[in-house]
Amino acid sequence: MGDTASASVPGGRCQVLVIGGGPAGSTIAARLAQKGREVVLLEKARHPRFHIGESLLPMNLPLFAELGVADAIAQIGIPKYGAEFTIPEAPDAPRTYYFERALNPDTPSAAYEVRRSEFDHLLLENSRRLGVHVLEETHVIDVRLADPARGGTQQVTARTADGETLAFEADFVVDASGRDTFLARRLELKERNAEHNSAAIFGHFDAVPRRPGRDAGNISIYWFRHGWIWMIPLRDGAMSVGAVCFPEYLKTRNCPPEDFLWQTLELCPPAFARMQGARLASPVNATGNFSYRASTAHGPGYLLVGDAFAFVDPVFSSGVYIAMSGAFRGADAVDRCLDDPARAPRYLRAFERDVRRGVRRFSWLIYRFNSPVMRRLFMAPSNALRMEQGVISLLAGDVYRTTRAQWSMLAFQAAYYAHVALTLPASIRFWLRRRRNARVRFTGGTTPEDEA
Ligand SMILES: Cc1cc2nc3c(=O)[nH]c(=O)nc-3n(C[C@H](O)[C@H](O)[C@H](O)COP(=O)(O)OP(=O)(O)OC[C@H]3O[C@@H](n4cnc5c(N)ncnc54)[C@H](O)[C@@H]3O)c2cc1C
Q1: Is 344 inside any structural domain?
Q2: Is ligand 1 within 6 A of the CB of residue 52?
Q3: In angstroms, what is the span from residue 15 Cα to ligand 1's centroid?
Q4: Atom of ligand 1 nearest to the CA of 138
Q5: Cβ-based neighbours of 430, under 8 Å, separated by 6 or more
Q6: Which CATH number does the domain housing residue 336 bear?
Q7: Residue 407: predicted pLDDT
Q8: Tell me, what's the pLDDT at 441?
Q9: Could you tell which of 46, 51, 115 is best to mutate to test the pocket of ligand 1, judged by most ligand atoms within 8 Å of the CB?
Q10: What is the C-alpha separation between 350 and 337, in angstroms, rounded?
């Protein structure tokens, strides 16, 4: 870090200040440090700390290699070779999509399931190892952006756990504050997703049976009438179990979250059958209103990355990958902006275009995931025009490149709309439910972000 800003108010001057030390913040900070930039990262919590979002995608793996953490992640994760789906109508006939069938041969054939406390801690420590100046238990409370007409630095104020106020000056500010969406709120950029809304309830359990052999690390997804349930096996024997539901259903909760989670599991017989003998091993949390985006991901002297910019839904385990891949792209953009400020708008626009493309490609499938047609297509996939493999490529996280996987996805979309035409009444009922729920404001959360 550079000079201290003032003797009475410690802090400092740096090239880039990153708000938040989750996967997005640690990754962009690490990448910028790898490029020789002077970076300060401020994180309000102390790692390791709990976070939801434990299932990763194969396309994360090349990013781990670039950050130099591939071996360390392999130590804390268990391999996930595929994603298994079950519908209530066929409880004994789950269907597993294996990543090794992805269309592009360079797609890794496995991902990992991780405890986020360990994963996020590892990434944060790695950024420190690469030279990032990391301050934990340091909460950013104010950002004053420079007037673009006059130029100058961005002023950031933070408060430590001891109540000390720190003042920083940076050429560039990155907001990676996750669902706190620090800058998007301050600048009034945050918009609810008008097309999609969901809420979730989740906890960790012991003694939930795993799939045999190589499938032991696969994620399981069970559809039921209010949404879908996940089971994510963790390395130490625990199983992360959660339900992502239409918010109107979660709003009916009138009992402690633990009881409500059990009641919800009971509504899904194949998932409930697997939970016989399971013991709750953590607090149960409920959270909602997580489908949003900011109207822009950048402005003069700042950008938003990861959940600080947008989040849609956890169904395809895309959150961490979008956060980290956005961070890689963001680091390239910031580095170029610092070298060539006159061209900064162009670099930042290119960053935003890329990030939006990734989010958009996941969103189409996410919005329709609970529809009867999508269930049918997922459970009896056709590989005509390599549609099934196109879906697998998307499930693996191959969303930024334009390859033949995108053509296969277009064929899949056409097949979807043809089926919708054949099942119009049920499809309209689903569409009306989705639209109604997009307007529901969830109020039963147990996490601080829900209040915001
Ligand atoms: C129910 C649910 C299930 C999910 N499951 C998955 C999954 O299986 N797989 C997956 O990939 N994704 C999943 N996600 C999404 C995933 O959790 C997020 O997309 C991911 O954590 C985003 O990373 P991030 O770094 O942007 O934000 P975060 O991981 O939230 O990190 C933000 C950090 O910023 C810090 N911070 C916030 N405000 C400030 C401040 N003012 N000052 C300093 N620090 C601050 C926070 O303490 C936090 O450490 C799930 C999400 C939900 C809601």
Answers
A1: yes
A2: yes
A3: 24
A4: 43
A5: 370, 371, 372
A6: 3.50.50.60
A7: 86
A8: 78
A9: 51
A10: 12
Q: Which of 174, 303, 320, 447 to mutate to test the pocket of ligand 1 (most atoms within 8 A of CB)?
A: 320
- Report the number of distinct structural domains present in the chain: 2
Same domain, 320 and 375: no
- Which pLDDT does position 376 carry in this prediction? 87
What distance in Å separates the CA atoms of residue 1 and residue 37, rounded to the nearest whole number?
Answer: 10
Which portions of the chain are predicted below pLDDT 50?
1-9, 451-452
Q: Which residues span the domain enclosing 21?
A: 11-69+115-192+293-359
pLDDT of residue 137: 98
Asked whether residue 54 falls in the same domain as residue 101, the answer is no
Are 444 and 251 spatial neighbours (Cβ–Cβ below 8 Å)? Answer: yes
Tokens representing 237 are: 């024997």
Q: Which residue has the tokens 């949404």?
A: 227
